[in-house]
Amino acid sequence: MSSPLDRRHFLSLRTLPAADWQRLLADAETLAGPRGRERLLAGRRFGMVFYNSSLRTRTSFEVACFDLGAHAVYLQVGGGLWQLEHRDGVVMDGDAAEHVKEGVGVLARMVDGLGLRSFAGLKDAADDAKEPVLHAVARASSVPVLNLESAMDHPHQGLADAFTLRRRFAGRKGRVVVQWAPHVKALPMAVPSAACLAFAREGHEVVLAHPEGFDLDPGVVADATRLAREAGGSFTVSHDRAAALRGARAVYVKAWGSRHAYGDPQAAAKARAAHGGWMCTERSLAETDGAIVMHCLPVRRNVVIADEVLDGPRSVVLEQGEARLHVQKATLCRALGISP
Ligand code: CP
Q1: pLDDT tens readout for residues 107-155
Q2: Digit-coded pLDDT (tens) for 166-224
Q3: Backbone phi, psi, residue 292, to 5°
Q4: C-alpha of residue 313 to centroid of ligand 1, in Å
Q5: CA–CA separation, 164 vs 161, rounded Å?
Q6: How many angstroms is it from 150 CA to the middle of ligand 1?
Q7: Of all atoms in ligand 1, which is nearest to the CA of residue 57?
Protein backbone atom coordinates (compact mmCIF):
# COMPACT_ATOMS: atom_id res chain seq x y z
CA MET A 1 0.00 0.00 0.00
CA SER A 2 1.45 3.37 -1.01
CA SER A 3 1.81 6.31 1.37
CA PRO A 4 0.75 9.89 0.49
CA LEU A 5 4.47 10.66 0.02
CA ASP A 6 4.85 7.76 -2.47
CA ARG A 7 2.00 9.24 -4.46
CA ARG A 8 3.75 12.63 -4.71
CA HIS A 9 7.16 11.25 -5.72
CA PHE A 10 7.81 11.21 -9.48
CA LEU A 11 10.29 8.38 -9.85
CA SER A 12 9.41 6.31 -12.91
CA LEU A 13 7.09 6.19 -15.91
CA ARG A 14 6.72 2.46 -15.24
CA THR A 15 4.66 2.99 -12.11
CA LEU A 16 2.97 6.39 -12.49
CA PRO A 17 -0.84 5.94 -12.39
CA ALA A 18 -2.52 6.58 -15.76
CA ALA A 19 -4.70 9.34 -14.29
CA ASP A 20 -1.59 11.18 -13.03
CA TRP A 21 0.01 10.91 -16.48
CA GLN A 22 -3.00 12.53 -18.13
CA ARG A 23 -3.27 15.19 -15.40
CA LEU A 24 0.42 16.14 -15.72
CA LEU A 25 0.16 16.57 -19.50
CA ALA A 26 -3.00 18.66 -19.16
CA ASP A 27 -1.41 20.79 -16.42
CA ALA A 28 1.72 21.24 -18.53
CA GLU A 29 -0.42 22.66 -21.32
CA THR A 30 -2.03 25.08 -18.85
CA LEU A 31 1.35 26.06 -17.41
CA ALA A 32 2.82 26.65 -20.88
CA GLY A 33 0.55 29.72 -20.96
CA PRO A 34 0.31 32.79 -18.69
CA ARG A 35 -0.64 30.61 -15.69
CA GLY A 36 2.94 29.34 -15.75
CA ARG A 37 4.20 32.80 -14.71
CA GLU A 38 1.97 33.09 -11.63
CA ARG A 39 3.35 32.64 -8.13
CA LEU A 40 1.65 29.29 -7.54
CA LEU A 41 4.62 28.03 -5.49
CA ALA A 42 5.44 31.27 -3.62
CA GLY A 43 7.58 30.62 -0.57
CA ARG A 44 8.31 26.99 -1.53
CA ARG A 45 11.83 25.59 -1.78
CA PHE A 46 13.14 22.93 -4.17
CA GLY A 47 16.52 21.22 -3.73
CA MET A 48 18.34 19.55 -6.65
CA VAL A 49 21.10 17.00 -6.08
CA PHE A 50 23.08 16.30 -9.27
CA TYR A 51 25.62 13.48 -9.46
CA ASN A 52 26.06 14.23 -13.20
CA SER A 53 26.24 17.17 -15.62
CA SER A 54 23.22 18.88 -17.16
CA LEU A 55 22.21 21.80 -19.33
CA ARG A 56 18.45 21.40 -19.86
CA THR A 57 17.36 19.70 -16.65
CA ARG A 58 19.11 22.05 -14.28
CA THR A 59 18.18 25.20 -16.19
CA SER A 60 14.55 24.27 -16.74
CA PHE A 61 14.00 23.42 -13.06
CA GLU A 62 15.65 26.65 -11.92
CA VAL A 63 13.58 28.70 -14.39
CA ALA A 64 10.39 26.79 -13.52
CA CYS A 65 10.93 27.56 -9.83
CA PHE A 66 11.61 31.22 -10.60
CA ASP A 67 8.51 31.53 -12.79
CA LEU A 68 6.28 29.98 -10.10
CA GLY A 69 7.75 31.97 -7.21
CA ALA A 70 9.71 29.12 -5.59
CA HIS A 71 13.41 29.07 -4.71
CA ALA A 72 15.69 26.44 -6.28
CA VAL A 73 18.87 25.18 -4.59
CA TYR A 74 21.40 23.43 -6.88
CA LEU A 75 23.85 20.98 -5.32
CA GLN A 76 26.47 19.05 -7.28
CA VAL A 77 27.83 15.89 -5.67
CA GLY A 78 31.61 16.16 -5.43
CA GLY A 79 31.56 19.76 -6.69
CA GLY A 80 30.84 21.72 -3.53
CA LEU A 81 28.63 19.00 -2.05
CA TRP A 82 30.17 16.11 -0.12
CA GLN A 83 30.58 12.81 -1.95
CA LEU A 84 27.59 10.73 -0.89
CA GLU A 85 27.33 7.03 0.00
CA HIS A 86 24.01 5.31 -0.72
CA ARG A 87 24.67 1.66 0.16
CA ASP A 88 23.60 0.24 3.49
CA GLY A 89 26.09 -1.23 5.94
CA VAL A 90 29.32 -0.15 4.23
CA VAL A 91 32.44 1.02 6.09
CA MET A 92 32.75 4.59 4.84
CA ASP A 93 36.53 4.77 4.55
CA GLY A 94 36.54 5.84 0.86
CA ASP A 95 35.75 9.14 -0.89
CA ALA A 96 32.19 9.53 0.45
CA ALA A 97 32.11 11.74 3.56
CA GLU A 98 28.35 11.56 4.10
CA HIS A 99 25.58 8.99 3.73
CA VAL A 100 22.35 9.90 1.96
CA LYS A 101 20.52 8.97 5.17
CA GLU A 102 22.00 12.04 6.85
CA GLY A 103 22.60 14.24 3.79
CA VAL A 104 19.15 13.81 2.26
CA GLY A 105 17.58 13.63 5.70
CA VAL A 106 18.87 17.11 6.52
CA LEU A 107 18.07 18.58 3.08
CA ALA A 108 14.50 17.33 3.40
CA ARG A 109 14.14 19.41 6.56
CA MET A 110 15.06 22.55 4.60
CA VAL A 111 13.19 22.10 1.30
CA ASP A 112 9.67 21.12 0.23
CA GLY A 113 10.74 18.87 -2.64
CA LEU A 114 13.93 17.26 -3.83
CA GLY A 115 15.19 16.41 -7.33
CA LEU A 116 17.88 13.81 -7.98
CA ARG A 117 20.05 13.10 -11.03
CA SER A 118 22.13 9.93 -10.78
CA PHE A 119 23.05 8.10 -14.00
CA ALA A 120 23.65 4.39 -14.43
CA GLY A 121 27.01 3.09 -13.23
CA LEU A 122 27.21 1.00 -16.45
CA LYS A 123 29.21 -1.70 -14.69
CA ASP A 124 26.50 -4.09 -13.48
CA ALA A 125 23.20 -4.20 -15.41
CA ALA A 126 21.36 -6.01 -12.61
CA ASP A 127 22.48 -3.41 -10.05
CA ASP A 128 21.52 -0.48 -12.31
CA ALA A 129 18.10 -2.05 -12.90
CA LYS A 130 17.45 -1.85 -9.14
CA GLU A 131 17.92 1.97 -9.16
CA PRO A 132 20.02 1.87 -5.96
CA VAL A 133 20.74 5.61 -5.60
CA LEU A 134 17.24 6.80 -6.51
CA HIS A 135 15.61 4.41 -4.08
CA ALA A 136 18.08 5.17 -1.28
CA VAL A 137 17.34 8.88 -1.67
CA ALA A 138 13.56 8.32 -1.81
CA ARG A 139 13.77 6.23 1.38
CA ALA A 140 15.84 8.90 3.16
CA SER A 141 13.61 11.80 2.11
CA SER A 142 10.60 13.03 4.05
CA VAL A 143 9.59 15.27 1.10
CA PRO A 144 8.59 14.31 -2.47
CA VAL A 145 11.46 13.22 -4.72
CA LEU A 146 11.54 13.92 -8.47
CA ASN A 147 13.71 11.78 -10.74
CA LEU A 148 15.85 14.10 -12.90
CA GLU A 149 17.34 11.04 -14.70
CA SER A 150 18.31 7.91 -12.91
CA ALA A 151 20.01 4.69 -13.98
CA MET A 152 17.02 3.39 -15.92
CA ASP A 153 14.49 6.20 -16.36
CA HIS A 154 14.20 9.86 -17.31
CA PRO A 155 10.51 10.48 -16.60
CA HIS A 156 10.60 14.25 -17.14
CA GLN A 157 12.14 13.71 -20.57
CA GLY A 158 9.48 11.14 -21.42
CA LEU A 159 6.76 13.51 -20.28
CA ALA A 160 8.24 16.37 -22.36
CA ASP A 161 8.52 14.10 -25.40
CA ALA A 162 4.89 13.02 -25.10
CA PHE A 163 3.90 16.70 -24.71
CA THR A 164 5.86 17.59 -27.86
CA LEU A 165 4.28 14.76 -29.85
CA ARG A 166 0.75 15.67 -28.67
CA ARG A 167 1.25 19.17 -29.98
CA ARG A 168 2.85 18.02 -33.26
CA PHE A 169 0.27 15.27 -33.92
CA ALA A 170 -2.63 17.40 -32.60
CA GLY A 171 -3.61 14.46 -30.41
CA ARG A 172 -3.69 11.86 -33.24
CA LYS A 173 -1.95 8.47 -32.95
CA GLY A 174 0.69 7.20 -35.34
CA ARG A 175 3.72 5.00 -35.88
CA VAL A 176 6.53 6.18 -33.62
CA VAL A 177 9.94 4.54 -33.86
CA VAL A 178 12.51 4.71 -31.06
CA GLN A 179 15.71 3.92 -32.94
CA TRP A 180 19.20 3.11 -31.68
CA ALA A 181 22.10 5.15 -33.06
CA PRO A 182 25.88 4.86 -32.85
CA HIS A 183 27.98 6.90 -30.42
CA VAL A 184 31.60 7.26 -29.35
CA LYS A 185 30.88 5.63 -25.98
CA ALA A 186 28.38 3.39 -24.25
CA LEU A 187 25.48 5.46 -22.89
CA PRO A 188 22.77 4.55 -20.34
CA MET A 189 19.32 3.28 -21.31
CA ALA A 190 17.29 5.76 -19.26
CA VAL A 191 16.19 7.99 -22.17
CA PRO A 192 15.18 5.29 -24.70
CA SER A 193 13.37 3.45 -21.90
CA ALA A 194 11.46 6.60 -20.94
CA ALA A 195 10.63 7.32 -24.60
CA CYS A 196 9.22 3.80 -25.08
CA LEU A 197 7.16 4.06 -21.88
CA ALA A 198 5.89 7.56 -22.72
CA PHE A 199 4.84 6.76 -26.30
CA ALA A 200 3.29 3.47 -25.14
CA ARG A 201 1.25 5.41 -22.55
CA GLU A 202 0.04 7.66 -25.36
CA GLY A 203 -1.36 4.71 -27.32
CA HIS A 204 0.89 5.07 -30.38
CA GLU A 205 2.08 2.24 -32.61
CA VAL A 206 5.51 2.13 -30.98
CA VAL A 207 8.42 0.26 -32.58
CA LEU A 208 11.74 -0.06 -30.76
CA ALA A 209 14.42 -0.57 -33.44
CA HIS A 210 17.96 -1.59 -32.55
CA PRO A 211 20.69 -3.98 -33.72
CA GLU A 212 20.79 -7.38 -32.03
CA GLY A 213 22.51 -7.21 -28.65
CA PHE A 214 21.23 -3.74 -27.77
CA ASP A 215 18.05 -4.83 -25.97
CA LEU A 216 16.59 -2.58 -23.31
CA ASP A 217 15.90 -3.93 -19.83
CA PRO A 218 13.35 -6.78 -20.12
CA GLY A 219 11.23 -5.25 -17.33
CA VAL A 220 10.96 -1.96 -19.25
CA VAL A 221 10.00 -3.80 -22.45
CA ALA A 222 7.33 -5.77 -20.56
CA ASP A 223 5.93 -2.59 -19.01
CA ALA A 224 5.95 -0.72 -22.33
CA THR A 225 4.06 -3.63 -23.92
CA ARG A 226 1.48 -3.60 -21.11
CA LEU A 227 1.08 0.20 -21.12
CA ALA A 228 0.65 0.27 -24.92
CA ARG A 229 -2.05 -2.40 -24.73
CA GLU A 230 -3.87 -0.52 -21.94
CA ALA A 231 -3.76 2.70 -24.00
CA GLY A 232 -5.06 1.04 -27.18
CA GLY A 233 -1.72 1.08 -29.00
CA SER A 234 1.05 -1.45 -29.58
CA PHE A 235 4.71 -2.01 -28.76
CA THR A 236 7.04 -4.18 -30.84
CA VAL A 237 10.79 -4.67 -31.21
CA SER A 238 12.58 -4.84 -34.58
CA HIS A 239 16.19 -5.40 -35.63
CA ASP A 240 15.39 -4.27 -39.19
CA ARG A 241 15.69 -0.48 -39.22
CA ALA A 242 14.40 0.03 -42.78
CA ALA A 243 11.27 -2.01 -42.08
CA ALA A 244 10.73 -0.28 -38.74
CA LEU A 245 10.96 3.21 -40.25
CA ARG A 246 8.57 2.54 -43.14
CA GLY A 247 5.48 4.69 -42.59
CA ALA A 248 6.77 6.23 -39.35
CA ARG A 249 5.46 9.68 -38.40
CA ALA A 250 8.05 10.27 -35.67
CA VAL A 251 11.55 8.88 -35.19
CA TYR A 252 13.17 9.21 -31.78
CA VAL A 253 16.90 8.74 -32.20
CA LYS A 254 19.09 7.76 -29.24
CA ALA A 255 22.37 5.97 -28.59
CA TRP A 256 22.70 3.44 -25.79
CA GLY A 257 25.12 0.70 -24.79
CA SER A 258 24.91 -3.03 -25.40
CA ARG A 259 23.57 -5.13 -22.52
CA HIS A 260 25.88 -7.93 -23.65
CA ALA A 261 28.95 -5.73 -23.21
CA TYR A 262 27.86 -4.03 -19.97
CA GLY A 263 30.94 -3.13 -17.92
CA ASP A 264 33.32 -4.16 -20.73
CA PRO A 265 34.39 -0.99 -22.63
CA GLN A 266 36.35 -2.85 -25.32
CA ALA A 267 33.52 -5.24 -26.14
CA ALA A 268 31.08 -2.34 -26.05
CA ALA A 269 33.16 -0.33 -28.53
CA LYS A 270 33.37 -3.34 -30.85
CA ALA A 271 29.60 -3.86 -30.70
CA ARG A 272 28.94 -0.19 -31.54
CA ALA A 273 31.49 -0.08 -34.35
CA ALA A 274 29.63 -2.83 -36.19
CA HIS A 275 26.56 -0.60 -36.62
CA GLY A 276 27.87 2.81 -37.73
CA GLY A 277 25.32 2.75 -40.57
CA TRP A 278 22.51 3.33 -38.06
CA MET A 279 23.27 7.07 -37.91
CA CYS A 280 20.08 9.01 -38.72
CA THR A 281 20.34 10.65 -42.17
CA GLU A 282 17.84 12.00 -44.70
CA ARG A 283 18.38 8.83 -46.71
CA SER A 284 17.50 6.59 -43.77
CA LEU A 285 14.23 8.52 -43.35
CA ALA A 286 13.20 8.36 -47.02
CA GLU A 287 10.40 5.80 -46.54
CA THR A 288 8.90 7.37 -43.43
CA ASP A 289 5.59 9.23 -43.63
CA GLY A 290 7.35 12.61 -43.51
CA ALA A 291 8.55 11.78 -40.01
CA ILE A 292 9.63 14.37 -37.51
CA VAL A 293 12.92 13.59 -35.77
CA MET A 294 13.31 13.72 -32.00
CA HIS A 295 16.29 13.59 -29.65
CA CYS A 296 16.56 14.46 -25.96
CA LEU A 297 19.87 16.36 -26.40
CA PRO A 298 22.78 16.68 -26.03
CA VAL A 299 23.40 15.13 -29.45
CA ARG A 300 26.67 14.49 -31.28
CA ARG A 301 26.21 15.77 -34.82
CA ASN A 302 27.22 13.46 -37.67
CA VAL A 303 27.68 10.57 -35.23
CA VAL A 304 24.10 10.12 -33.97
CA ILE A 305 22.17 12.39 -36.37
CA ALA A 306 23.46 14.05 -39.54
CA ASP A 307 23.60 17.86 -39.85
CA GLU A 308 21.13 17.72 -42.76
CA VAL A 309 18.47 16.28 -40.42
CA LEU A 310 19.16 18.42 -37.35
CA ASP A 311 19.26 21.60 -39.46
CA GLY A 312 16.23 20.64 -41.55
CA PRO A 313 12.46 20.90 -41.09
CA ARG A 314 12.03 17.42 -39.56
CA SER A 315 13.89 18.27 -36.36
CA VAL A 316 11.82 19.12 -33.25
CA VAL A 317 14.70 18.86 -30.78
CA LEU A 318 14.42 22.49 -29.65
CA GLU A 319 10.68 22.07 -29.00
CA GLN A 320 11.46 19.02 -26.87
CA GLY A 321 13.96 21.03 -24.86
CA GLU A 322 11.47 23.85 -24.30
CA ALA A 323 8.79 21.34 -23.28
CA ARG A 324 10.93 20.35 -20.30
CA LEU A 325 10.09 23.73 -18.74
CA HIS A 326 6.33 23.28 -19.13
CA VAL A 327 6.11 19.70 -17.90
CA GLN A 328 8.38 20.35 -14.94
CA LYS A 329 6.16 23.16 -13.75
CA ALA A 330 3.42 20.52 -13.69
CA THR A 331 5.48 17.94 -11.77
CA LEU A 332 6.62 20.60 -9.27
CA CYS A 333 2.99 21.59 -8.63
CA ARG A 334 2.00 17.92 -8.21
CA ALA A 335 4.89 17.26 -5.80
CA LEU A 336 4.08 20.33 -3.71
CA GLY A 337 0.35 19.68 -3.64
CA ILE A 338 -0.73 22.65 -5.75
CA SER A 339 -3.38 22.35 -8.44
CA PRO A 340 -2.66 24.71 -11.33
N1 CP B 1 17.90 15.93 -22.00
C2 CP B 1 18.48 16.27 -20.84
O3 CP B 1 18.13 15.73 -19.76
O4 CP B 1 19.43 17.22 -20.96
P5 CP B 1 20.54 17.57 -19.87
O6 CP B 1 21.34 16.31 -19.65
O7 CP B 1 21.34 18.68 -20.45
O8 CP B 1 19.84 17.97 -18.60
Answers
A1: 999 999 999 999 999 999 999 999 999 999 999 999 999 999 999 999 9
A2: 999 998 999 999 999 999 998 999 999 999 999 999 999 999 999 999 999 999 999 99
A3: -80, 155
A4: 22
A5: 5
A6: 12
A7: 8
In the reported structure, the alpha carbon of residue 194 is separated from the centroid of ligand 1 by a whole-number distance in angstroms of: 13
Q: Give the closest residue (by CA) to ligand 1 atom 4.
A: 56
pTM above 0.85, yes or no: yes
Give the model's pLDDT for residue 2: 62
Q: Is 145 exposed, middle or buried (0-12, 13-18, 19+ CB in 10 A)?
A: buried
Q: How far is the CA of 6 from the centre of ligand 1 (A)?
A: 25
Instruction: Return the CATH number of the domain spanning residue range 157-320.
Output: 3.40.50.1370
Q: Which residues of 31-41 are buried (b: 16+ CB within 10 A; e: fewer)?
A: bbeeebeeebb
Residue boundaries of the structural domains of the chain:
4-153+324-335, 157-320
* Mutation probe of ligand 1 site: the residue of 48, 50, 54, 254 with most atoms within 8 A of C-beta: 54
Superfamily of domain 4-153+324-335: Aspartate/ornithine carbamoyltransferase (3.40.50.1370)
Closest-lying ligand 1 atom to the alpha carbon of residue 52: 6
